[in-house]
């Protein structure tokens, strides 16, 4: 493994470019180590990338779908071959444990393969014969797509957009987050090299580049994953030219543990712990608040702590023993800490979980030991905010109407989970306002690329994954041939 800083490129019209100003990315486990540099692109360069995508669209839109699939499959093969190198890079710039980085690449490849296998079915023109004549319904590409992605799953949340957009005949400009730009830039370069110039462009930067990507009149669709607050700016910027949009936003997913949950079910408890602390809790669809029926609350908490102490091992992401690495950045550490301190100052009990494998590292890097918060008020910030870190409040509830109300009063509705006897759990699940609800596991473990994923309320607009996630890159065109 190299420790020399890596310099990644921007890609505009097939050309790899560098900028004088660069984004510097440090290793969250060892912040003194610079993992690499990405270009810090300007608005002017972003406009050039959009122009390139706009010009490429004219022919790419009418390209042969079999040719597009072949190109994507070539890219998949090359990413597979480069997986060990890319996973290490992702782990070093992000802080997620190596197995977690490998998992992110694996799910990205699974989705890209699904998109290749299903695109023909999704865009196949439909012919309807009826009493007034004939109607042809086609599913055509939309145009230039601006894809803007966050730092927590930079590769999977970019390929979730790149594969269906390009396969359905769109062109794209992708902008990853400045907090994890390196590994995703490598993946994007591999894909872009398989396609004609201008089909897949890559720029780096933050809000300024984002504003160009979301307001430029040549952009037809925005595919955004990130915070709900940022999405509000994007909707405003895009309103001038009424762009199509897919928005995958924040969540404050609840896990509801019913009175018939078996507290001795070690497998389920392990799943619950993972669903709270995988990727140090920095996942949109992780369970961020747990409500437990009062009749089993105490027994549940005891068994939960046992299970957490077994699974959680904190330390260097490259240590194969480690299950939870550092938090991605300093601001996030401070924010999550402030929520825990706020709850503690109001009388909540705070319990540290897991085994620290390297105490020295903890002081130096952006580490936060996984924390359980008991006795918080249901309306404390630690419960109602999207805390996005390695902490979870567990609260008791007395009746199901009350817990359904607590779950649904959130502005968010991304995923949720219900734990207990199956039929009972499904009955409760039906009442939950969320895009996905899992029974006896959480979305982060049960995620299946074959089915649509997305949020209700302020958690998003539209769906990714599944055939819906491919179709969202098409416009429906009706051609009528009357008798
Ligand atoms: P963020 O909203 O701060 O940033 C996301 C992206 O938007 C970044 O690339 C950023 O540079 C860009 N950006 C910032 N300001 C912009 C502007 N004015 N116009 C256009 N782009 C702009 O989010 P983050 O902190 O990177 O990621 C964490 C958030 O993402 C959490 O809220 C999490 O829940 C959410 N998320 C949602 C999903 C999902 O599928 N629903 C998945 C992962 C993460």
TrEMBL record:
Protein name (record): Aldehyde dehydrogenase
GO molecular function: oxidoreductase activity, acting on the aldehyde or oxo group of donors, NAD or NADP as acceptor
Domain Aldehyde dehydrogenase intervals: 20-478
Stored CDD domains: ALDH_AldA-AAD23400
UniProt record similarity statement: Belongs to the aldehyde dehydrogenase family.
Organism: Ureibacillus sinduriensis BLB-1 = JCM 15800
SUPFAM superfamilies assigned to the protein according to its UniProt record, in alphabetical order: ALDH-like (SSF53720)
Keywords (A to Z) from UniProt: Oxidoreductase
């Amino acid at each position: 493994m190299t420790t020399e800083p890596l310099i990644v490129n921007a890609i505009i019209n097939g050309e790899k470019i560098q900028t004088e100003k660069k984004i510097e990315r440090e290793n969250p486990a060892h912040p003194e180590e610079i993992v690499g540099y990405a270009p810090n692109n300007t608005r002017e360069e972003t406009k050039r990338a959009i122009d390139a995508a706009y010009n490429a669209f004219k022919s790419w839109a009418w390209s042969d779908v079999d040719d597009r699939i072949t190109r994507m499959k070539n890219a998949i093969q090359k990413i597979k071959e480069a997986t060990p190198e890319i996973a290490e890079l992702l782990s070093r710039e992000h802080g997620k444990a190596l197995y977690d980085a490998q998992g992110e690449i694996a799910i990205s490849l699974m989705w890209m393969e699904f998109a290749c296998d299903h695109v023909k079915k999704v865009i196949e023109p439909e012919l309807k014969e009826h009493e007034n004549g004939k109607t042809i319904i086609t599913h055509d590409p939309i145009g230039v797509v601006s894809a803007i992605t966050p730092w927590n799953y930079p590769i999977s949340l970019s390929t979730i957009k790149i594969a269906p957009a390009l396969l359905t005949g769109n062109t794209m400009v992708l902008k990853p987050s400045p907090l994890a730009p390196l590994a995703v830039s490598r993946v994007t370069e591999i894909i872009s090299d398989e396609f004609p110039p201008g089909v897949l462009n890559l720029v780096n930067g933050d809000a300024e580049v984002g504003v160009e990507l979301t307001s430029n009149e040549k952009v037809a669709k925005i595919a955004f994953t990130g915070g709900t607050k940022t999405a509000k700016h994007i909707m405003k910027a895009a309103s001038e030219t009424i762009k199509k949009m897919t928005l995958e936003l924040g969540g404050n997913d609840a896990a509801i543990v019913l009175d018939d949950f078996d507290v001795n079910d070690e497998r389920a408890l392990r799943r619950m712990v993972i669903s709270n602390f995988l990727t140090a809790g920095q996942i949109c669809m992780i369970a961020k608040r747990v409500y437990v029926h009062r009749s089993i609350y105490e027994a549940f908490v005891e068994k939960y702590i046992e299970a957490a102490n077994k699974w959680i091992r904190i330390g260097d992401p490259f240590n194969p023993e480690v299950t939870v690495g550092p938090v991605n950045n300093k601001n996030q550490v401070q924010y999550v800490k402030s929520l825990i301190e706020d709850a503690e100052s109001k009388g909540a009990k705070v319990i540290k979980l897991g085994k620290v494998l390297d105490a020295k590292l903890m002081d130096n890097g952006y580490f936060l030991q996984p924390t359980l918060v008991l006795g918080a008020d249901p309306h404390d910030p630690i419960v109602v905010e999207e805390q996005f870190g390695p902490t979870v409040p567990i609260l008791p509830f007395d009746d199901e109407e009350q817990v359904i109300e607590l779950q649904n009063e959130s502005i968010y509705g991304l995923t949720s989970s219900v734990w207990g006897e199956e039929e009972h759990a499904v009955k409760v699940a039906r009442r939950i306002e969320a895009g996905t609800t899992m029974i006896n596991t959480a979305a982060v473990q049960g995620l299946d690329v074959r089915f649509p994923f997305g949020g209700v309320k302020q958690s998003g607009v539209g769906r990714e994954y599944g055939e819906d996630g491919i179709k969202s890159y098409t416009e429906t065109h009706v051609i009528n041939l009357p008798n």
